[in-house]
Write a structure and sequence with these properties.
It is built from six helices and eleven strands. The protein is α/β, with parallel strands linked by helices and 240 residues long. The protein has a domain of 164 residues: Purple Acid Phosphatase, chain A, domain 2, CATH 3.60.21. α1 links the parallel β2 and β3.
Length: 240
């Protein structure tokens, strides 16, 4: 049973959101998390369940390819079937930039941030040139990455990979900030367009503030994969 406590915002009646932090190639942990969510939905049915993946599915961990394949297949855990929202992370953006232009700086930026482990998971030969990577990476995986959304709004929450810039309306937020921002977002104590649920900045535990909930708990760095469960004006957590 999930222990629920007061949340900083609320969802309309009949809705529940499961928002999962940065996976970073930890496919086994994601499979466990999906099973935990499926079990919770079976034990506590709700009319409108939504699962939000907050981005950074790839890099650093052992099975980025497996994570993308799992997301591409859709919901595989036991019924009931939730709506699934997949958001873009900065690591997916780095990968696409490396694949698209062949720019040496973009290639080195991705490789230096964990891209080599992703290439290995797809079976890309170690000596393959960047222009040849797409010959091995499934086109369906690359196409999936291009469909990822920048943010998702539901009830009193906005779900986004990195965060939002304080003082800027949601419809004027920049792509770069939504994927990369840390400061001044993390230390901001004032209002934001909504309570922000985000990943991107790892911590030993969930960062629950009055204006944001950070759920990147370093799954690939010896921590755990965390999911915040939001319903009504309450929140709880699942960990894998």
């Amino acid at each position: 049973m999930i222990t629920m406590s007061l949340a900083p915002a609320a969802l309309p009646a009949g809705q529940r959101v499961y928002a999962i932090g940065d996976v970073h190639g930890c496919c086994d942990r994601l499979a466990v998390m999906h099973r935990l969510i499926g079990n919770d939905l079976a034990a506590r049915p709700v009319g409108e369940p939504t699962v939000v993946h907050l981005g950074d599915y790839i890099d650093r961990g052992e099975d980025s390819a497996g994570v993308i394949e799992r997301l591409l297949r859709g919901w595989a855990a036991p019924a009931p079937m939730p709506r699934v929202v997949n958001l873009l992370g900065n690591h997916e953006e780095m990968m696409l930039a490396a694949l698209d232009g062949g720019d040496p700086d973009a290639v080195m930026n991705w490789l230096s941030n964990g891209g080599a482990s992703s290439l290995q998971s797809w079976g890309v030969p170690r000596r393959a040139r960047p222009g040849d990577w797409k010959r091995t990476i499934p086109s369906t995986h690359v196409a999936f990455l291009r469909t990822l959304a920048l943010h998702h709004v539901q009830g009193g929450y906005v779900f986004v990979h990195a965060g939002l810039r304080p003082g800027v309306p949601l419809d004027r937020q920049s792509r770069h900030d939504m994927l990369w921002i840390r400061e001044p977002f993390l230390s901001w104590t004032g209002d934001l367009p909504a309570v922000v649920v985000h990943g991107h900045t790892p911590g030993h535990d969930v960062a629950s503030r009055g204006n944001r909930i950070g759920v990147d708990t370093g799954a690939v760095m010896g921590g755990v994969l965390t999911c915040v469960v939001l319903e009504g004006d309450r929140m709880g957590f699942l960990r894998a």
